[in-house]
Design brief:
By secondary structure, the chain is of the alpha/beta class. The chain is built from nine helices and seven strands; from the N terminus they run αααβαβααβαβαβαββ. The protein has a single domain, classed as Vaccinia Virus protein VP39 (Rossmann fold, 3-Layer(aba) Sandwich), CATH 3.40.50.150. Strands 3-2-1-4-5-7-6 form a seven-stranded mixed β-sheet, sandwiched between helices. It is globular. It starts with a helix and ends with a strand.
Length: 259
C-alpha cells in the first residue's frame, strides 16, 4: 500500500513538473489577444493548456457525471443571455472556468458583468461538517483544501484575456456575497464543494435570481461531496423549483431554473 501511494505521489509530482514547464514554454506561441474575437469553440486546445483555462476544444466526452464541463457553463450563459441580471461563479479557484466564461459573456451579452467569489485561502473549519458525513476519499476535503491559488493569479489571468467585464471578490462567502446585494442575476455557477458554502450561496442568490435564470450546481449527487446534496435538498424542500439535469458530451450537471 505504501509503495502504491509513493508511486502515485511520484507520478503526480512528475505531471506537475511537466505541466509547469509546458506553461512556461507555450504562452508566447498562443497570445490570447489573437483569439479574443473568435468563438471559444475555435480556440486551439494548446491555448487552454498554456494558460490553464478550460476550452470546448479541450473537453473530452465521458460517460458519467464529472467535473464541470465548460460547454455546459457556456450553454447556460447562452440560455440566459436575454434574462436580466449579471452572472456569477462561486468557487473560482485558479479561474480556469471564470476566464472563458468572461470572454464568452462579452461576446454574447456584453451588457452583463461577471462576478467571481472565492476565499482563495482554501476551506476553513466548516469543512469538518462534510468530513463527518463520510463518502469516498477526496484529497481536498480538509481544512486548507483547494488552497493552491490566489486572487492575484486570477486577476492577472483576467487581464491577460482582456476580461474587464469580470470582477473577482475575495473572502468567505458570508463576507463577499453581500457586496453584490443590490444586484440581480441571470446565471450562477456554484462550485464550492461543501455544505455551509452551498447553503450560503443558495440563500443569497435564489432571491436575486430573475425568472428564467439558472443556478448550476456542480457537486450535486457526487458521493465525495455529500454536503452539497444535503444543502440543496434542504433548500429546495419548500421551493416550487425542482432540480433538472443538463448533459453535453456525456458530462451532466444539475441545475434549477427560477420560476
Amino acid at each position: 500500500m505504501a509503495t502504491n501511494s509513493s508511486s502515485s505521489d511520484s507520478a503526480r509530482s512528475l505531471r506537475t513538473l511537466a505541466l509547469g514547464i509546458v506553461r512556461k514554454v507555450l504562452p508566447p506561441f498562443f497570445p490570447p489577444a489573437r483569439y479574443l474575437d473568435q468563438p471559444l469553440a475555435t480556440w486551439p486546445p494548446l491555448l487552454g493548456l498554456a494558460h490553464d483555462i478550460k476550452l470546448p476544444s479541450r473537453t473530452k466526452a465521458q460517460s458519467a457525471i464529472g467535473a464541470a464541463n465548460i460547454n455546459i457553463l457556456l450553454s447556460t450563459i447562452d440560455r440566459t443571455a436575454q434574462v436580466p441580471g449579471d452572472v456569477a461563479e462561486c468557487g473560482v479557484f485558479r479561474g480556469a472556468s471564470l476566464v472563458p466564461m468572461a470572454v464568452h459573456l462579452r461576446q454574447v451579452a456584453p451588457a452583463k458583468h461577471l462576478f467571481g467569489f472565492d476565499s482563495f485561502e482554501g476551506y476553513d473549519d466548516s469543512i469538518l461538517i462534510d468530513v463527518g458525513m463520510g463518502g469516498p476519499p477526496e484529497a481536498n476535503k480538509r481544512v486548507g483544501g483547494f488552497k493552491g491559488t490566489s486572487c492575484a493569479v486570477v486577476r492577472d489571468k483576467l487581464r491577460l484575456f482582456g476580461a474587464n467585464n469580470a470582477t473577482v471578490i475575495p473572502g468567505n462567502f458570508r463576507e463577499s456575497l453581500p457586496q453584490c446585494a443590490g444586484r440581480s442575476f441571470s446565471s450562477v455557477h456554484l462550485d464550492c464543494g461543501i455544505y455551509v458554502s452551498y447553503k450560503e450561496c443558495l440563500e443569497f442568490f435564489y432571491p436575486r435570481l430573475n425568472p428564467g435564470g439558472v443556478i448550476l450546481i456542480n457537486d450535486y449527487g457526487k458521493p465525495r461531496w455529500p454536503g452539497c446534496t444535503k444543502a440543496v435538498d434542504e433548500f429546495l424542500q419548500e421551493k416550487a423549483e425542482k432540480l433538472q439535469i443538463i448533459e453535453i458530451d456525456g458530462h451532466a450537471k444539475f441545475y434549477l431554473c427560477k420560476i
